[in-house]
Amino acid sequence: MKKTCVLGGWTMVLAFISWVFVPWVPCAQEPDGWKEAALDRMVRIESEQASLRLKLASDPSLQEAQEALAALEEEWERLSMSMGGDRPMAQGQPEAVPDAVLSVPLLPPSSCLSTTTTHGGGTPVAIPTGPAVVTSTLVVAGAGTFIWDVNVSTHITHSFAADLDITLQSPAGTIVTLTTDNGAGNDNVFDGTVWDDSANPGGQVPYLANNGLVTDHTYVNLTLASPLVPEEAMGAFFGEDPNGTWTLTISDDLAGDGGNLSDWSLELTTLSGPPIETAYSFTQSASTAIPTGPAVVTSTLDVAGAGDSLSGLTLTTFLEHTFAADLDVTLQSPAGTVVTLTTDNGSGNDNVFNGTLWDDNADVDGQVPYTTNNGLATDNAYVNLTLATPLVPEEAFGAFLGEDPNGTWTLTVSDDLAGDGGTLVSWTLNVLTATCVPTLVIDPAPPLPFLQRGTPWSVTFTASGGTAPYSFSLTGTVPPGLIWDQVSATLSGTPTWAGTYDFTIHVMDANEYTGSQAYTLESEPLYTLNFYDNLNRAQLCVDSVTGHYVWTNFMPWAGVYEGQGVSANGGTAFWTLPEDPTYIYATYDSRRKRARAYLTNQTDGVYSAIVDSNTTNNPACGGGVPE
Questions:
Q1: Does domain 276-435 have CATH number 2.60.120.260?
Q2: Which residue spans within 365-509 are E strands per DSSP?
Q3: Whole-model pTM above 0.85?
Q4: Where are the domains of the chain?
Q5: What is the largest CA-CA distance in the chain?
Q6: Do domains 96-271 and 441-523 have the same CATH topology?
Q7: Which of 267, 271, 198, 274 is nearest to 233 (CA)?
Q8: Is 240 in contact with 174 (CB distance < 8 Å)?
Q9: 354 and 383 in contact (C-beta within 8 Å)?
Q10: Which among 77, 248, 332, 347 would be 20 to 30 A from 50, CA to CA?
């Protein structure tokens, strides 16, 4: 192929003679349509490669075909690099693209309390014709501190979508690529896209196109592509604190087309804190032959004894195969969710996946603009006979979040072209499952019913939120006269003393998770009792905390008698005086606010009496006789 640039115009001359070619070299100033022409040439190259490899499959000794195949591969790579890393996409019609659906958050274990919130307000920015890079920020506040799942919505108008490379950066600095060089020459395909790790739970190989996967979607001009699994897993954000500034970076890597980001938003599913995670590892060591294509083989692995809610997964493949781009590989969970590890990546290089660790967290940086990004399966710079590891799979393992991993997992390998084969030697799943410490709730909630000294009182405590049976205990101080029964979790009895008492009920469930609840009980409020004879003949003042009392007579036989009692705040109290008279008997009904008291000696009987039918109108002790 030959391309020439002349003053005042542009001429492209394509010449295909036998297996000879002249590589595409872009001019400094490109005319309209050159990008479309380059993509069209890449499609034709792929078709020519397939024909050549069929010839080589029947006769590998054809030296001329081998050289031509290598030359076409080099031309394809140069074309792709000249366009910022583009590769041709599947072609389709509007009816071939599914309607957009609402994203569904991947739910954490039932023991975890999660919250799903939406955060908008991403700053709008113009996207100039490239090369150019712009950013937009969005501040998240008030979300939980542990990310379980992230979805992103973008409203981007832009012609020739393949010019766009887009990343999302979290407050912690983790960078995830949403798309690089996808969408071909179609316009406005990301204007309303929901980017979601779980957007494409199906899509089993072999396939030529796979709607819902940004790298394999059938794009149609002026038709929204949504929802889409991003090119790099947003599962890389798992566990981070989302509160802070998020940054969307858009790189337009070629001239001739521009657009606008009008707005974008985040949907976050968060926990208030980290769950408890447990790790498990399972290996399938039986090898599986991969015949020269087209061919599809499967290998299964049984997982047993793991927890029931998956929170993380990595996969290691020992896969020997020449011409890695022949391979389309998926992993299917026991629940039926299918995740694509790679389709048509690795170019003509051999054995690049022989030991690869596939991990959503393999590439936490990689900021655009870039043409290659080692660690990302779709943008890695592969080298022949050189292991590419670790790699972020083409589709997010985050799609498995929350599933029960126990059961049969299936690795499917599709070799989609003739001429090369290999062996799946072994593969290993590393699984993390999560549980959360349950919040045990103790009932009744504070405050407890008010108790009256001398009046029977009882409360039985119960618990919820964990796994029965529950066991209870009590620490602190309870009012005298109350008894704690640990077996029935009941506090009961008849209080005999006034005051305020603080105690805590503790609970443990069958799984040894614990909770507690603090309580305060008042055995009548703390106040000083001031009793008056209704005929204003005597007054009795009692400190309800200390029991100190002063009896004052107002009649001609006036006198003041002072002493220390045992209690005077309800019920019947008895004091012994150090002088004559020697005894005081007093009763007080705090519910009716009534008092009776008698001052006596041992020989003469009643010396003075108080009957106060309404103590609420009494002044404080020492305040005089009420009107």
A1: yes
A2: 407-415, 422-435, 441-443, 457-460, 462-464, 471-476, 482-485, 490-493, 499-508
A3: no
A4: 2-82, 96-271, 276-435, 441-523, 528-617
A5: 141
A6: no
A7: 198
A8: yes
A9: no
A10: 332
Second CATH level (architecture) for the domain 441-523: Sandwich (2.60)
Alpha carbon distance 425, 413 (integer Å): 12
d(CA 36, CA 518): 71
Distances (CA, A) of 354 to 351, 387, 412: 5, 6, 16
Tell the residue number behind the tokens 């008291």, with chain if given: 597
Q: In CATH, what is the architecture of 96-271?
A: Sandwich (2.60)
Q: Which residues of 162-191 are buried (b: 16+ CB within 10 A; e: fewer)?
A: bbbbbbbbbbeebbbbbbbbbbbbbbbbbb
Mean pLDDT, 10 residues at a time, over the chain (627 residues)?
29 32 43 70 76 72 80 76 59 39 60 90 91 96 95 96 96 97 92 96 91 94 96 97 98 90 96 91 98 94 96 97 94 96 92 98 93 93 96 97 96 90 97 90 92 83 92 94 96 82 94 91 64 78 70 72 61 51 69 76 67 78 55
- Say how far apart CA 261 and CA 126 lie, in whole Å: 6
What SS3 state is found at 28? Answer: coil
**DSSP label at residue 392:** B
SS3 577: coil
